[in-house]
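Bench log, entry 3. Co-assembly request; chain sequences pasted below exactly as received.
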Amino acid sequence: MAKQYDVLFRLLLIGDSGVGKTCLLCRFTDNEFHSSHISTIGVDFKMKTIEVDGIKVRIQIWDTAGQERYQTITKQYYRRAQGIFLVYDISSERSYQHIMKWVSDVDEYAPEGVQKILIGNKADEEQKRQVGREQGQQLAKEYGMDFYETSACTNLNIKESFTRLTELVLQAHRRELDGLRTCAGNELALAELEEDEGKAEGPANSSKTCWC
Amino acid sequence: MIDPYGFERPEDFDYAAYEEFFSTYLVILTKRAIKWSKLLKGSGGVRKSVTVKRYVRKGIPLEHRARVWMAVSGAQAQMDQNPGYYHRLLEGESSSSLEEAIRTDLNRTFPDNVMFRKTADPCLQKTLYNVLLAYGLHNRDVGYCQGMNFIAGYLILITKNEEESFWLLDALVGRILPDYYSPAMLGLKTDQEVLAQLVRMKLPAVAALMDGHGVLWTLLVSRWFICLFVDILPVETVLRIWDCLFNEGSKILFRVALTLIKQHQDFILEASSVPDICDKFKQITKGDFVTDCHTFMQARHVYHCAWLGIGCYETGTLTKIFSEPGRLSMATIARLRESCRAALQAQS
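Structure output for the full assembly:
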């Protein structure tokens, strides 16, 4: 039986409470939008398979509680991520200011070489806007990140931003992927490689860690 | 369709199964209500006693629930000793960061409950805001922690009284639960670790599965502890658990967690990946087993002997919560809490 995906990645959504992380995720995985979600407690995740450059990528997307004190729980997930969405709300200056803090947390807890992307969500709320698009662009440039303004509500740039981060992660792992493709040409091997990587990383976890 | 607490029933709600359970449960409720009325009329008040404990484990009728929770948790005594305190908190100096943190969650607390909608009249969002704000001002070390919104929400639905909800929240956060909600959340992390240890002792196959896949317990159970099973188990079942929580303390949370895991052990062991395990842990909180709150919680006066290891022999119907996970004494919990907390503190 053909494997349903070639490679498996873990992406993480972080940002202040109420910026719309869960809504972004639900729009992307289920194409649904609910104006009132319940607050996320702790950590949750959803999965979706997308195709990028002919590669079927299974992505696990980890959604986190935004309140600062929950970081004591959520930071455990940073080091397992290959890509991270840093999300703010364009109608909240405070959530934008806090991106700096979120970036420094990523530097501290996430693995080196983790791919990051900046998201200004709730772009449909133009009349409540407190953060200009160029401010977002400027900040992203400072940190060397790509930037998207998104709206889970109107489905603006959702697929684009998730696909982009996936591409960045793929590019970062290009060497391993190409190596496998040329020598084996075997789809299964790509996923297995990724699983093996998962096993090898994070010495604090048992060596048997498997995230498939 | 809306349930008696104002929650919209999900589209896939199994009315036939619920009806079957509820027609039996209604008979039990009626019987319990008569017994409770007698008990409450006789003494004039509720005091902790063996009889009350037995009664509580069999469920407090809705009409007496607020009064009994207030009495057995000590919330009533606190309220009586501090007249006007709650209102003074709300009239005194506030905190803008606290206000904003609470406001962020108002629309995100029970959007599926008609009484919490912005358009409801009266709208319980304002009541919720007041209770959480007053509590954050009262207990500044804790302030507001996400999850407290769901707990306060349930308290408001049951008591229909702002001040009583405040004092019950104080009983839970300030006395009954360890420090789950403080900024370091050490009590929460400790209790998750305690549960992991209990599973290791009582259900080693499940523990081996978790270890094999490197699953963090926080991923599976942090909401169980933080929300005290709100929005995880059916409303009626949560209320029955809370009956015991107010009267007997936080040990009930481990009993419920272990019962859920033990009952579904074989099902959980079928999992072959991390997402699979997560999915199974979500599924075990749904279905007939947890909907039939009475069988789930059913308890008779002998079960605690089994828990304490005194060795009572029991026949007859299953008493799930209090017999399923085997022996579990408060001393065991206390010992585990102490060692897990020390280990966590050493790590950080």
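Helices of chain A lie at 21-30, 71-78, 93-97, 99-109, 133-142, 158-172, 174-183, 187-200. Chain A touches chain B through 29 residues (CB under 8 Å).
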